Amino acid sequence: MAKIISIVNQKGGVGKTTTTHNLGYALAEEGERTLLIDLDPQMNLSTTVGIDCYAQKNSIYDVLRDKKGLPLGSVVKKTEHDKMDIIPSAFELSGAEIEFTKRISSSSLLSRSISNSIREDYDYILVDCPPSLGVLTINSLSTSDYIIIPMQPEVYGLYGIDMLLSTYEEIQEEINPKLEIMGVLITMHDGRLSLHKEMTEKINSYFKDNVFKTIIKTNTTLKEAQSNNQTVFEYDGRARGAKDYEKLAREVIEYVKER
Amino acid sequence: MAKIISIVNQKGGVGKTTTTHNLGYALAEEGERTLLIDLDPQMNLSTTVGIDCYAQKNSIYDVLRDKKGLPLGSVVKKTEHDKMDIIPSAFELSGAEIEFTKRISSSSLLSRSISNSIREDYDYILVDCPPSLGVLTINSLSTSDYIIIPMQPEVYGLYGIDMLLSTYEEIQEEINPKLEIMGVLITMHDGRLSLHKEMTEKINSYFKDNVFKTIIKTNTTLKEAQSNNQTVFEYDGRARGAKDYEKLAREVIEYVKER
Ligand SMILES: Nc1ncnc2c1ncn2[C@@H]1O[C@H](COP(=O)(O)OP(=O)(O)OP(=O)(O)O)[C@@H](O)[C@H]1O
Ligand SMILES: Nc1ncnc2c1ncn2[C@@H]1O[C@H](COP(=O)(O)OP(=O)(O)OP(=O)(O)O)[C@@H](O)[C@H]1O
Ligand SMILES: [Mg+2]
Ligand SMILES: [Mg+2]
Question: Which of B32, B129, B151, B152 could form a disulfide with B123 if both were Cys (CB 3.0 to 4.6 A apart)?
Fold first, then answer.
């Protein structure tokens, strides 16, 4: 049965998409069958993986709307890696905030569409969320086992965290009691900046055991790989970013095994 | 009469808040009376300016809901600079997406609350928008004269731009014909990266005259100033970031004069 992990932070530009893509690939490299779900209407993840979201006959939007009775499995697409698949985004998701909210069961559209057969096909399902705490992110949290919170070691990174934690607590109490925070992932860390050292200490003292040992360092190769529509592994496996996401994948697998 | 400028990009973490705060201060330094409006429920701008958003008796949320007949002027707060004021954010704005959408006039709540008297009090009104194209951003665009689009010279920066441009065209045609793009502002530019040179060329060839001559370079002092709840001008006026935002302020003033 697949473990479902939401990659969430309403703060923009903290590395949610970069983490979903590279962690997903690193898990696949470790032999884990991995499914990525792109719930962000910006479609960054889908575009990087090489999918043309406008060319889909049916999409995750149709599945969530549940008008055609489409199973989620019908919108899964293959990627370059034989152990990593993707459910691409759709531009109609940008209207989802407004459209889905009117429905009584608006927070459980995704959990109702993730069948047991999908869960059997994979070991991990990673969901890339948009930079907001709206209906799409809530759908992801409502169906997830775990949350990973990417966070830059900068002051704006810490400001919004209370809002995210209170949304998490609300969903855990009212909709999804099994949901737990797997950890805060420090991203784009630059060892030369004293600001980053200070903020990392603040994050560690605030979250204590809930911070991944792995820190993702700032690494230009990650950006270059993205402009080549690749993960850092495909672009240059010796790069700093590849080592960091490899380490993270092992830490995630270890965490799940111990549970 | 104040010129209203929306600082918009649904891509997260591109420097919207950093630009609103530092450009606002630079305009005030040039002698322009400036009002900042924080329309982002994350409240990053309000927190940096030193406002406790939870301590407000009435907020922009009450004004937009229009239940109490409160004028926008009643929620203006002073800042450290005598020529720069702010209308802080409110945590209730995070529910605004759902609550305001149901109202027929949901896109013009802000324009109906910006009275002529507010417009007479200022030369510039800058609106910091959240990382989405939802009802809050649409309200800002519906009442603005100009748009500034901060953009990182990275591939994810370019992916979502078509969605933003189509939203702009729709609002210009149906709600606000005076709306124009003042320019794309390249932010966090790192001269050492060939990727940034390449992407800057792509942005220039895509947007032609609609790109500011001023490029905001990546500058650690900007981040350090934020962790001190200051603009870069207050923290270290000689820094690279201060020079860049000063230049931008002059370019904005020049643009408005020529219109
Ligand atoms: N470790 C890293 N080192 C250097 N650059 C990075 C790193 N991680 C991410 N980036 C860059 O930072 C930018 C933001 O990353 P990304 O788009 O993954 O964040 P996000 O949280 O998904 O953004 P959004 O909130 O818009 O969805 C991208 O341009 C990406 O290339
Ligand atoms: N020129 C710059 N040089 C270095 N760092 C910068 C620069 N501009 C912004 N930053 C940093 O980048 C991060 C993102 O900036 P900011 O929060 O202003 O973006 P935003 O677009 O407002 O994000 P959001 O989409 O979450 O509202 C912040 O941590 C900020 O300190
Ligand atoms: Mg993303
Ligand atoms: Mg912001």
Answer: B32
Residue B208, phi-psi category: left (phi > 0), alpha (psi -120 to 50), beta (remainder): left
Region B196-214: what's the mean pLDDT?
97
> Can you spell out the DSSP letters for B136-161?
HHHHHHHH-SEEEEEE-SSHHHHHTH
Amino acid B96: pLDDT: 84
User: Between chains, do A220 and B193 touch, taking CB under 8 Å as contact?
Assistant: yes
pLDDT-based confidence at residue B170 (cuts at 50, 70, 90): very high
pLDDT tens, A54-85?
999 999 999 999 878 899 999 999 999 999 99
Ligand nearest to the CA of A160: 2
Tell me the pLDDT tens digit for each residue of A27-45: 999 999 999 999 999 999 9
Contacts within 8 Å (CB) and 24+ apart, A206-212: A206/A158, A206/A161, A207/A183, A210/A181, A210/A183, A210/A184, A211/A183, A211/A184, A211/A186, A212/A148, A212/A183, A212/A184, A212/A185, A212/A186, A212/A248, A212/A251
Q: Smallest Cα–Cα separation from B60: which of B122, B125, B121?
A: B125
Chain A, chain B: beta-carbon pairs less than 8 Å apart: 109
Q: DSSP of B96-130, one letter per residue?
A: HHHHHHTSTTTTSHHHHH--HHHHHH-SEEEEEPP
Pairing mode, strands A84-87 and A124-128: unpaired
Burial, A162: exposed, middle or buried (Cβ in 10 Å; 0-12, 13-18, 19+)? exposed
Question: Which of B44, B152, B190, B231 to mutate against chain A (most A CBs within 10 Å)?
Answer: B44
The confidence score (pLDDT) of residue B35 equals: 98
Which of B22, B17, B61 minimizes the C-alpha distance to B43? B17
Question: Nearest ligand, CA of residue A232?
Answer: 1
Average confidence (pLDDT) over A103-122:
91
Residue B44, chain A, CB below 8 Å: the answer is yes
